[in-house]
Amino acid sequence: MTMDKGKIKILLLAIASTSLTWILNHHLGLGPIVANGLIGVLAAILMPGALAGVAYTSSFVGMSSLAVLPSIMFALIGGLIAGFVIITTTEIYAGIGGKGGTTAAAAALVTRAISGLLG
Amino acid sequence: MNILLIILTAIAAGVTTYFIANNLKKGAVLASASVTLASGIIFPYFFPTMGSTLMVVAACASYGGMVSRRNAPSIIDMIMISAIIGMLFSITATSYAGIGGRLGTIAAISCFAWLGVKNSAKAASRARKSDFLSKSVGIWQ
């Protein structure tokens, strides 16, 4: 997989979106639903369609509980993994409602495995 | 009673998202995010006991409402997908709790289930028609 400017942008956006959702969810205590909704609305208003989709999808990873993402460090790792999953699965099942959530669930499960390995 | 309320909430949230995304042409992300945000604020306020469950159901159905018009051409499709989401949510309430993306996965499974039912029904109808035609030709021969 070659990394061009567009893919790096997606990775950075995924990391930012996941960690922002995690902060809104756990640090500010807004809860996962409101945090995800806020990030989604902001992304849809401020960004073009494709990038808003990336931000919304990676925001699902930030909805994870503290058992899955115990610290902001793991939220950053989760965002990075979500970005990689989004880049590699762009064309698969496009137009199916919930595709973004499934992508995020895959990233969250990989992150949980990594956090389990690191103790 | 609880399951009925969950299914009705899922249908309302799914159809609202589908309507905002396709009929009002606001895009799937804005439609789903606004329904999710509204449900996260409204449900806990108006339903103190069941609000926390209903807001999660509504968010889950709003992810399903992001389905494209190619896969769900009519509002009836969206109602059926939302009803499956409500049922699936009730069944899988304790599975993979705390994993981000769990709700989206429920929505995706429901979309695939409905598309499967629709395609099977179409295939069965085609098979019946071709069977009827071959019998009709047989009579004339």
Features:
heterodimer; A: 119 residues; mainly alpha; B: 141 residues
- Domain tally of chain A: 1
Tell me the number of helical segments of chain A per DSSP (H or I, 4 or more residues long). Answer: 5
**Share of helical residues of chain A:** over 70%
Mean pLDDT of chain A: 90
Rg of chain B, nearest Å: 19 Å
Largest interface, chains and sizes:
A-B, 45 and 45 residues
Largest sheet of chain B: none
Instruction: Please state the average pLDDT score of chain B.
Output: 90
How does the overall form of chain B come out from the CA principal axes? elongated
Tally of contiguous helical segments of chain B: 5
Distance between the termini of chain A: 30 Å
Low-confidence stretches of chain B: none
Topology as H/E string of chain A? HHHHH
Q: Strand share of the residues of chain B? A: under 5%
Number of strands of chain A: 0
Strand count, sense and closure of the main sheet of chain A?
none
Give the CA-CA distance, first to last residue of chain B: 59 Å
Précis, in short:
The complex is a heterodimer of chains A (119) and B (141). With 119 residues, chain A is mainly alpha-helical.
Q: How would you describe this protein?
A:
The complex is a heterodimer of chains A (119) and B (141). By secondary structure, chain A is mainly α. Chain A has one domain. Chain A contains five helices and no strands. Chain A has helices at 5-27, 32-46, 49-61, 72-88, 99-117. In chain A, helix 1 (5-27) packs antiparallel against helix 4, helix 2 packs antiparallel against helix 3 and helix 3 (49-61) crosses helix 4 (72-88). Chain B is mainly α. Chain B has one domain (2-140). Chain B is built from five helices and no strands. Chain B has helices spanning 2-23, 28-46, 51-64, 75-91, 102-140. The radius of gyration of chain B is 19 Å and the shape is elongated. The N and C termini of chain B lie far apart (59 Å). The relative contact order of chain B is 0.14. The mean pLDDT of chain B is 90. Chains A and B meet through helix 2, helix 3 and helix 5 of A and helix 2, helix 3 and helix 5 of B.
